Here is the input.
Amino acid sequence: MKKILIAVDSTNDSKGILSLFRNLVWSPERIILLHVEQLEGNSMMTAMLGDAELSTLKDALKGTEYKEALDKKAEKVLTYYKKEMENGGLTNIKTVIREGHPSEEILRVSEEEGVDLIIVGCSGKSRMQKLVTGCASREVEKNAKMPVLISKGNGCGKHADLWSGREAYAIR
Amino acid sequence: MKKILVAVDDSKGSKAVLSVFKNLVRPPEKVILLHVERLLGGSLMIDMLGEAELSTLRESLKGTEYKKELDRKAEKIISYYKKELENSGLISVKTVIRDGIPAEEILKVAEEEGVDLIVTGFNEKQGIHRLITGCVSKDVERNANVPVLVAKDTTEEKAYDWKEAVANSLI
Here is the structure.
């Protein structure tokens, strides 16, 4: 096992991913930690933008506070995971930040780096949320050339159905 | 690592499961090898049946040629994968054959056995075909409590490109 790409979004399911290495998969020689900044937040919009529009959007956002906040979040998530993994005995970690469509960027990086396995978290989104915001892991699973491991963190699997998902969202 | 559930069928995508065992996962203590017989073949019907209807269907199929054929096929698939897995050094392989809706049976067995990981093959079904017959790995992925590894055949040639085929036929 040479290289693994791990796509991380928030700090929620780090435990799931770390226990994978302890128990399930061989520790790789190299880990690529990837975070993709969603420029339009959790909206469906970015999924509908073409490359040209996306680059206009990138230009427009350059230097704004919004972008800075995104950068800060990305930085935070990546350093958190890097530290957790190094504590878990994994070394040789490369961090990558991209912006755009999560699933597309994940696939692109996986091909550039020639990884042997992609690990994506399960967001635990409800069906309704998924319908609206899309689900990166689904797209990645469908289009990747290499095996894909979907890790299940807290609150994943046995998805809350539409309404209880909404309630949970409202309470949060 | 304790237990892994491996779901296989006769598709090419399933074979990728073997390379996953060779390269990616740590050898587990126990492997549950599962094949689910689709009672109605690759049709959409089966996914729409409830428990009651499904058990009626099972009853009516019992002892028929069709069911025997399914059993034979299942036996063949399971024994092929069992041999392959044992050749790669796994000793404790338990085989399970179920009938019904594949995704549901996979999840059911995963819970009964308390597995730590589910490994499925990825079927190269595309577009309409995927829409009609459904995609087992998708349903499993969405509803499983444990991590799911979707194996891919990395050596696979390109999927059949009908656009190209049409273009070629026009020349």
Notes: The radius of gyration of chain B is 17 Å. Strands of chain B lie at 3-7, 30-37, 93-99, 117-121, 148-151. Chain B has eight helices and five strands. Residues 65-87 of chain B form the longest helix (23 residues).
